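User: Can you write out an input/output pair for a complex, sequences first and structure second?

Assistant: Here is one pair. Inputs:
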Amino acid sequence: MSTAALRILRTGYVSGDSVVHRLDGRVKFLFFLWISVFNYIFYDLYLSIVSFLLVLALATIARVHRFALTVLGVIVLPILALGVIVIGGPFGFPHNKTLLLAFDLLGFKIGLFLEGTVYVSTWTVRLAVTITSALIAYLTTHPSDLAGIMLKSRIPYKFAYAFLATIQLIPVLTNEISTIYQAQVSRGLNVKAKLIQRFKSIIVLIIPLTLGAINQTQIRAIALESRGFSAPVKKVMLRDPTLKSIDYLSLLLMTVGTIFFVYLIMTRGLVPFIQGVRYIQPGG
Amino acid sequence: MSTEIGKVEPAAVARPTGFVILQIVLIPVIAALNYVTGVIVNILKLPLFMDTWATMFGTVVAGLWVGAAGGFLYNIVMAFTVWGLPAWVWGFINIYIAIITWVFWRIGWVTVKSPVKLLVAGILVGVTNVVPVTAISWLVFGLLPTYAGTAPIYAAILASTNSMLWASVGSSIIAEIPDKLISLILAAVVASRMPARFTLGRRPG
């Protein structure tokens, strides 16, 4: 996971002139919240798949689909594989009744059940939708806009600073850990040693990293103060994001979508399209 | 002709601003350290997460709210970039970790000078953490097995109890106790090596 995550955090912003890039950051984050919430309200695999195809299409338009697919491959695919084997297989998921397929493995009859497989697929597609929509919002919004959006959304500027500083610090500290790692390897650190020895190795990597990072906090604090960070005045923004007609159109589409979803819930319940599979509560 | 000269008084300062700034600057450092530990765990191929140790460390060296904010921010950043929206709720685990670490630190258990107390504190953090972890797993992941390392245990408990809840609780216990124990030991060891000028939190006692 770390490599994919680091790649995204290092990339930060994928420049482009697509329709997704031109949308205001607030609209993109609202879309991310909107589609995530509705995907978690409904328990319908078809609806989740349609939502996933929609966000994947948007990711392709914004040319961030490769990032999205990499992350999904690292985070969602293992959960899907594990889930289908354990929950969809004959390991005691209490709702398993309809056999999808069965085969012999080393003399044992192994089966895959519809209920467990749909349950796992629904939850993992939900995850895929929310991850992809988050990546679209993050990768197509300029960091300066991100700060502007946070301040305009009345988020305290100290929190906005902390959020943006974390995104910037992660690649910096990751570079430092690779320097420390190389130095420790030249001093005999063995990453293929026994487990206990590897646990001890954490100390020699983390102490220099932490002391270095803490040491730099004073420099950062001075730099912030020299720019009037804690001055008791109203802060101004470098970029002032404003809503355009395309943003209002997107908001209108989301409103129409919300009305449609509410109508679906009232008329057809939380499983409006998929037939023959009832709603299963987690752990129920 | 006389001119009135206004009385100039020094501005009242309740507390030194530099202290607060240092605390604020420490928050992203803690969040980033949580993340980078994941990279180290990958390098060393360790079967743990250890992405809460910096929350514990931040709580010990800079106080409860700095540790909690740093830990929560780590989850917020990851949720809005890589993990997706629902994962932000893992931030509550970091807040819980900060609170329980702070309690144990205040009573003097998070110190390398008392290894037995540190060991007991680590185990207690792991055991009690199973409750919020299971709650979040229920809400966000539908109690699915999400970690390959504990999936066989999950499958075994599910096969014997027919309950996803117990399977999730059982596999969480197996994962959480060693993870939180080692994280707390690491936080205590690194905090013990910190120069006193960087320790912003009040010491216990």
